[in-house]
Amino acid sequence: MKSIKLSLLYGFLLWLIPFVVAFVIFPLRESQSPLFETIMPISLTTCVVVFSVLYFGKMESGFLSESIKLGIIWFGMCVVIDLFFFTWGPMKMSFINYMEDIGFTYLIFPIVTIGFGYMLERRLSEKSIPR
């Protein structure tokens, strides 16, 4: 990994920022559920794009393998942190209900990071091909 500390810091922020957004807009979950369910993936996607740009910005190679690891780490971190709140904590959701309602949404992370990694790797290989 380019930087395990940076990947863990960004992973925590990827969990924290949408958590704060959800906390602020939580009243919408009851009164305007479709709006709440729209805002949350937008907040997750925005965060993962920003942190992917920051993470990959100074790299020069190895994008695809790094992006796979990064996406898995970020997905895993957010699910594990959430489990403390949603299955064992105050929310008391079953693991299956948690995954159906929230957990699978975190698949946005590896999808975006792998997309970045693929694009950057492809761009790098195109630059190395003589024309």
C-alpha Rg, in Å? 17 Å
Unreliable spans are: none
| Shape category | elongated
Q: How many helices in DSSP terms?
A: 6
Number of domains: 1
Q: Can you give a write-up of this model?
A:
The protein is mainly alpha-helical and 131 residues long. It has one domain (4-125). It has 6 helices and no strands. The protein has helices spanning 4-25, 27-31, 33-56, 63-86, 95-101, 108-128. Helix 1 runs antiparallel to helix 3 (33-56) and helix 3 (33-56) runs parallel beside helix 6 (108-128). The radius of gyration is 17 Å and the shape is elongated. The protein starts with a helix and ends with a helix.
List keywords for this structure.
about 130 residues, mainly alpha, 6 helices, about 0% strand
